[in-house]
């Protein structure tokens, strides 16, 4: 019976039912959803999610959008893969359809043969045997003519999955186990970075070979030329460059995932997209990197910003998954760069980024609940980490605490409070609490830890002053937090 089942990978299941992958994993862990070799049977999916309307899911809506806009060039470039890739995917699906049809024809022949054999038994058997065979034939006829109770939903599910497979291909990275989808004309590297998965790379344009990977299974296609020369033995072993190939089918790839120590220092010229003066104490500086020099960094890291003769060190406040957009939170103080941002910096001005630096980064292999704590504008690295965790869908749950004094009390205020509340409104497993710094680091740590008496299954990410880090770490360890689950960054 296993051979007759239709199995779906977890990432595609999550997309079909509109749930984060972490939710599906938790259901499997709790025994609510059965799997077989890491895959979910279609019938099991129909059982566990009886109320899902497959035809209303995003992939169908995207197809309808393409139809409505008459395949305009802009929509096609953003949603449809290269025409040769699309043809390959349709061809592969055609082969599957042909195989399924051939199997059905074979079953039809077997049933006809069985019908003739049963007629032979009725011709030579006694009355009880003839009656038993007649009852069996009637039962078979009823079963074959009957419409399965889940037929309509199963048909919609299969149609939805087929559209997904045409529009995108799923990629699994070994040995890390990360999964993401390749959509449109993205290369494997571009798709991984959009998903927030920091695969190793250097130039991103085929010159350095730093993004060399190995194809384990599936089909890929070269979409960009590269100057880096792969040895024949490497190519025979499945080696290719992530920046030059896209996925035709679902693929499994061996590739390295960057840690903080793996990312080289870069010097990148960017342009000011906007200077958003949020309040009199904080400005959000939005920069755009050139297409050929995207900043390679991990959430939680910092860089040096330079404009003319002034410079300053700041944490990146945006997610690595935000393509060429890079955000910084600049606090108004006496530093020359901060004064330049508030008084002189304008759209399209040049700002150079040098970096990244720092080891205050996300632990990508953890699936535990995560507690984020920010103090004043230490919110910048925490925001980057939160968005990275969201993009990867790795955390079982997330709790965000942000302590800040009001602008009138010489603090920065909760200058992106609405942003945090929107996360809490949109996500079931996300909570947010704005705190006042007035009680002091020790009292805030005590109050916060009182909400989490058992921290044996948790990760902590804290950006704030030394006193806050010290109090939180001691209290968290006393409540069972593993030392490996503590991640602190001293930000005054």
What features would you highlight for this structure?
492 residues; alpha/beta; Ubiquitin-like (UB roll); Elongation Factor Tu (Ef-tu), domain 3; 4 domains; 6-stranded antiparallel β-sheet; 5-stranded mixed β-sheet; 20 strands; elongated
Beta-strand residue fraction? 15-25%
Main sheet summary: 6 strands, antiparallel
CATH superfamily of the largest domain: Nucleotide-binding domain of ferredoxin-NADP reductase (FNR) module
Q: Note the overall shape.
A: elongated
Structural write-up:
This protein has 492 residues and is α/β, with parallel strands linked by helices. It folds into 4 domains: 1-46, no CATH class; 167-254, Beta-grasp domain (Ubiquitin-like (UB roll), Roll), CATH 3.10.20; 266-357, Beta Barrel (Elongation Factor Tu (Ef-tu), domain 3); 370-490, Nucleotide-binding domain of ferredoxin-NADP reductase (FNR) module (Rossmann fold, 3-Layer(aba) Sandwich), CATH 3.40.50. The chain is 38% helix and 23% strand. It has helices at 10-17, 21-29, 42-48, 58-68, 73-79, 83-124, 127-145, 151-167, 188-194, 232-236, 336-343, 379-392, 417-426, 441-450, 466-478, and strands at 7-9, 39-41, 168-174, 179-183, 212-217, 220-222, 239-241, 245-247, 251-254, 266-277, 282-288, 302-307, 310-315, 325-331, 350-357, 370-375, 398-403, 430-435, 459-464, 486-490. The strands form 5 sheets. A 6-stranded antiparallel beta sheet has the order 13-12-15-10-11-14, covered by helices on one side. Helix 12 (379-392) links the parallel strand 16 (370-375) and strand 17.
